Amino acid sequence: MGSAYETLTEALVTRIGIDPERLAPDRTFADLALDSMALVELAVALDEHTEAVLPLEDLNTLTLAEAAALLDAPGGAGR
């Protein structure tokens, strides 16, 4: 996994408070049981480190690896 995955998981641990042992590339945001406020907080944290924007409306169905790939995509997700 690349730096986008590391940025994503770091934000989940430091900003949202997810136990790092719960994180894996194939886990979805729904698996992590993030509420809407946590998803917004995650989006803010990611915005501070990347120009990409994740689609909040579809975020629960994405795996962490898929979300990282969107962040790494040319032009970034949602741009």
Automatic annotation (TrEMBL):
Species this protein is from: Streptomyces blastmyceticus
Domain Carrier stretches: 2-78
Protein name listed in UniProt: Carrier domain-containing protein
Domain of life of the organism encoding this protein: Bacteria
Gene3D superfamilies linked: ACP-like
InterPro entries membership: ACP-like_sf, PP-bd_ACP
Pfam families reported in the protein's UniProt record: PP-binding
